[in-house]
Amino acid sequence: MRGRRALVLPLLVLAGWRALAADPDWSVQVTPYGQVFPALELSQARRQPPAETGDHVLGGGTGLIGVRVRARHDGERIALRIDGPELGGGEFTATLAHAGVEYQLRPPLDWDVTRLRSITAPRATRLAFALTRDGADAGAREVAISLRPLDEALYFVRDGGDSVDLSWIFAAYVDERDPVVDRVLAAALASGIVARFDAYAAADTDSVYRQAWAVWHALAARDIRYSRADPAIERGPHVFSQRVRFLADTYADRSANCIDGSVLIASVLQRIGLRSFLVLVPGHAFVGFYTDADGHAAAYLETTLLGARLAPLANPPRFAADVASDDAARASLASFLAALGAGRARHARVAAKLDGRHRPDYAVIDIAAARAFGIRPIGSAPSAPP
After folding, report:
1. Which residue, among 68, 37, 275, has the nearest Cα to 174 in the 3D structure?
2. Where are the domains of the chain?
3. Which of 43, 48, 2 is nearest to 376 (CA)?
4. For residue 22, which phi and psi values (nearest 5 degrees)?
5. Between 20 and 30 A from 75 (CA), which of 21, 184, 311, 355?
6. In terms of Cα–Cα distance, which of 32, 20, 24 is closest to 82?
């Protein structure tokens, strides 16, 4: 996973920018292709506006909605306001240090998450921009945009020979603090499979597998089943995006396609201290976790086996030998072991392509690495369903 600057900001150089009102002094840009994906902004921890860079960039926002302004004189003071039905108020101010230089303004955007959650399909709307220079009105601009739902994840953009990988966005749908995770963990502890979750404290692979099985068992007890629904929304040639449901929706519906199930399991594993990651392959996703604290060994779970009804094994593995006595535990163990086997086999088939060179179809998103780069859960699920 590359540095954060390499994650989002390359979008700014793509021809997918929509520049409006080609005024020699200031103009508005929206990327990619006049579409706005609030999940990209909300998934990134709010940054302090950096000092002016060599690229003459001002502001701590992503720059996916931005303004270019040419300074009229040294030390010019500007104030920018952006208004839209899903945006809160606020004004971005900056000083343009050098006359004649074109500055890129990247104001942080205050999205109204509650209103965004009500959007279930792309919505045509408009954003209004107003600029003042040294306290004097410098005019207004208005731009028509396609506002995308919060559960639409933009993960790749291509424009001719230029492209940018945004697959880290899936880490934003992994939410280890979601109330759903509490419910899953309560059910896992109630099963008796584990007495506690202590991650890698035992330094024992069997302990790790047992904890992961307890999580899987809780999902089986909830009767969450795999759904074949295709989450894809756009598959190129320029924009690649797909729907990722929030944990509360998956838990309430008891239905999960491959990415929904993967982010749910990853969320719970992260919460108990087991490092997880998502694996993306063409048209599919599955989840993995490290079986040791150093991350030297990993296991993979094929989420298409969520809710599978399989014959119990006559001889359970060592990590489950003393707890797989009741029918429910034996049934969930069978599907858990099948998911491990299928995940291992699928990973073996695609491992050679998980090298960062086969975008947008192949990616590994390590959740801890994403958090270290400032990618946070979108955190929009209000509560866990009963």
Report:
1. 275
2. 4-150, 165-372
3. 43
4. -65, 65
5. 21
6. 20
338 φ, ψ (degrees, to nearest 5): -65, -40
The CATH architecture one would assign to domain 4-150 is Sandwich (2.60)
- Burial letters for 342-367: b for 16+ Cβ neighbours within 10 Å, e otherwise? bbeebbeebeeeeeeeebbebbbbbb
pLDDT tens digit sequence for 192-217: 999 999 999 999 999 999 999 999 99
Task: Name, in order, each residue with C-beta under 8 angstroms of 107's C-beta and a sequence gap of 6 or more.
Answer: 59, 61, 65, 66, 67, 80, 82, 90, 92
Q: 163: which strand partners?
A: 158
Look at residues 176, 139, 193, 184 and name the one whose alpha carbon lies nearest to residue 331.
193
- 171 close to 285: Cβ distance less than 8 angstroms: no
DSSP code per residue over 289-336: EESSTTS--EEEE-GGGTT---PPPSS--GGGTTT--SHHHHHHHHHH
d(CA 174, CA 125): 29
Q: What is the pLDDT of residue 8?
A: 46
3-class SS at 66?
strand
Distance from C-alpha of 220 to C-alpha of 189, rounded to nearest angstrom: 14
Tell me how far apart the alpha carbons of residues 162 and 237 are, in angstroms, rounded to a whole number. Answer: 12
Residue 217: count of CB within 10 angstroms of its CB: 26
Supply the pLDDT for residue 15: 40
pLDDT of residue 22: 44
- Beta strands 225-226 and 91-96 are unpaired
Q: Is the dihedral of CA 270, 276, 277, 279 positive or negative?
A: negative
- Helix (H) or strand (E) holding 40, with range, is helix 38-42
Q: CA angle 350-352-357, nearest 5°? A: 105
The first and second tokens of residue 55, run together, are 């690229």
**Angstrom distance (rounded) from CA 225 to CA 219:** 9
What is the mean pLDDT, run by run of 10 residues, along the chain of 386 residues?
Answer: 40 46 75 91 70 73 89 96 86 94 91 89 94 95 94 89 89 97 97 95 95 97 93 87 95 96 98 97 95 96 94 85 78 95 97 81 93 85 50
pTM, two decimal places: 0.89
